[in-house]
């Protein structure tokens, strides 16, 4: 990983650096940061001569060699020094709350608009909503492009940034044209490497964020981080890692709740962890406790399904979405727990 002395390399300097690494079968990926760009060396970087030639360049501050297989997501990466702010929230300094309906119903736009107002009043800083839906059965509701227009209207009225799942490149391009703030990659696509590369590559210039959900069958945390590495390796390091329950499910829950993976992830990576207690448990009555557990384990935020009238929602809302009162109480309790955990230690 190359860290320049100035905020970024000039085109001429980048060409020189690229020429050097290509001699050794590697390539350069520019990672655009808020204040400084860094340049990842992708490929087998175990070439001492290459390192020496790069360090000898007058405009290079240093060259770091990262041993981890996920070089950009590793805690020793220069990316660990970036200050991450999303929706006005400095991540890691205060909790991030994402809330909204499972599925946006284009036949009832008012329900989504009222829900957007309600989740903002409850304390959420981002609005989630399903536009396109991955369904087990082909006969189930698959989503509607028109639902995105409703979410855009909700963003205009509330000022809340949007979180929208994309499942293919066509949906990705539509979401980018709509300037969706956070692109969600769902559990079913967590190992869709072609999609991961496309999302990382196409979202990098727009500075969109990516919320990557943990694959349902990802037993190894390193496999989760390797999936995130695909995104960063294509140029976008604005990544949120989202544990959302795995298989096999526990009797009584929708999945196997996995908020406890948070400390393992934080030992390995700088990337923020935002847990999803709604899909993890699958029942609204369990969501508050799972939310508090996630914060206790060190999560940087939560993604909670919510609806002003869960029974009128489509998708999973009737069984797992919180109503505004329950959401407000859950966010308030999670903030209190966060403050307790993060209060300064006394000398």
UniProtKB/TrEMBL annotation:
Pfam families: DAHP_synth_1. Residues 92-330 form the DAHP synthetase I/KDSA domain. Keywords: Transferase. InterPro entries: Aldolase_TIM, Class-I_DAHP_synthase, DAHP1/KDSA. It comes from the Bacteria. SUPFAM superfamilies: Aldolase. One of its GO terms (molecular function) is transferase activity. This is 3-deoxy-D-arabino-heptulosonate 7-phosphate synthase. It comes from Puniceicoccus vermicola.
């Amino acid at each position: 990983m190359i860290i320049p002395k100035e905020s970024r390399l000039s085109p001429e300097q980048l060409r020189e650096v690229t020429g050097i690494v290509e001699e050794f079968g590697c390539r350069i990926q520019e990672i655009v940061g808020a204040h400084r760009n860094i340049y990842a060396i992708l490929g087998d970087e175990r070439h001492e001569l290459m390192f020496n030639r790069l360090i000898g360049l007058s405009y290079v501050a240093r060259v770091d060699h990262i041993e981890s297989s996920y070089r950009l997501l590793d805690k020793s990466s220069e990316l660990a020094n970036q200050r991450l702010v999303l929706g006005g929230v400095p991540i890691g300094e205060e909790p991030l709350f994402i809330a909204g309906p499972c599925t946006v119903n284009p036949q009832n736009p008012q329900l989504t608009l009222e829900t957007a107002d309600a989740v903002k009043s409850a304390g959420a800083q981002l609005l989630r909503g399903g536009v396109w839906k991955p369904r087990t059965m082909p006969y189930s509701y698959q989503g509607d492009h028109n639902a995105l227009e409703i979410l855009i209207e909700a963003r205009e009225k509330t000022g809340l940034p949007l979180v929208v799942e994309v499942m293919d490149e066509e949906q990705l391009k539509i979401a980018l044209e709509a300037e969706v703030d956070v692109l969600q990659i769902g559990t079913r696509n967590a190992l869709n490497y072609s999609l991961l590369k496309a999302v990382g590559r196409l979202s990098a210039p727009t500075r969109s964020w990516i919320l990557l959900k943990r694959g349902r069958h990802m037993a190894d945390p390193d496999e989760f981080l390797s999936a995130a590495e695909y995104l960063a390796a294509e140029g976008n390091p604005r990544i949120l890692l989202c544990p959302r329950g795995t298989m096999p499910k526990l009797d009584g829950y929708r999945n196997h709740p996995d908020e406890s993976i948070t400390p393992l992830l934080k030992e390995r990576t700088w990337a923020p962890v935002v847990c999803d207690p709604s899909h993890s448990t699958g029942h609204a009555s369990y969501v508050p406790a799972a939310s508090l557990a996630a914060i206790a384990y060190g999560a940087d935020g939560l993604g909670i399904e919510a609806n002003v009238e869960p029974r009128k929602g489509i998708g999973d809302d009737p069984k797992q979405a919180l109503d505004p009162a329950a959401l407000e109480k859950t966010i308030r309790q999670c903030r209190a727990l966060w403050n307790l955990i993060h209060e300064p230690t006394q000398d």
